[in-house]
Amino acid sequence: MFRDRTEAGRLLAEALRAYRDDATAVVLGVPRGGVIVAAEVARAFGSPLDVVMASKLGAPGNPEYAVGAIDEDGTIIASQSVSVSTEYLEAAALERHAEIMRRVAVYRGGRPSVDVTGRTAIVVDDGIATGLTVRAAVSFLKRHGAARIVVCAPVMPPGTKAELGQIADDVVALEIPQGFSAVGQFYADFTQTSDAEVVAALSDRP
After folding, report:
1. Against a cut of 0.85, is the pTM above it?
2. Mind listing the pLDDT tens digit for each residue in 7-22?
3. SS (H, E, C) 165-190
4. Are 183 and 155 in contact (CB under 8 A)?
5. In this structure, is the dihedral angle defined by the CA atoms of residues 13, 42, 7 and 185, taken in order, positive or negative?
6. C-alpha triplet 167, 108, 21: angle, nearest 5°
7. Contact at 8 Å (CB) between 29 and 36?
8. Which element (helix H / strand E) includes 96?
């Protein structure tokens, strides 16, 4: 179990040490909690830190259960294991994309995003369950010219790790439990991260 996201980020940085000397590396946190973890990796590497904006689309009546995901460009990825109507998915995507653009304005504060063209993009989340949000992030980074994509998180289930390995160049996790039910069960402190904490982490980027 990890004490909190900061400790998890420091441990993850050690597991990613093979990328420490990659001068092209950029560390990209998945908001909100993933940015706190990513900040520790960026600090250890001396690499640029930014957000990669993607959001899950929750199921009808169960917003925590992902049936799809959307990225900053508005591109939608649908779950292949859960079927919902196109109309529902598009309506949910419209709402979530508005929230993504709000976060872009708040988190970047008018700064341009880090250019990933030809770079190693290290995508960091505080934990990955179904992997749909990260799949959307990976798709976004590929379209924007990343040369290599590394997906990492302190914890993810083995099936998700295997699936992400099919679309990313490398997948790194500290814990790969068989009995996975929720990311929060692997943290002593999994308090929801605020917008202000994300902004502070990004302001302290290398």
Report:
1. yes
2. 999 999 999 999 999 9
3. CCCCCEEEEEECCCCCCCHHHHECCC
4. yes
5. negative
6. 50
7. yes
8. helix 86-108
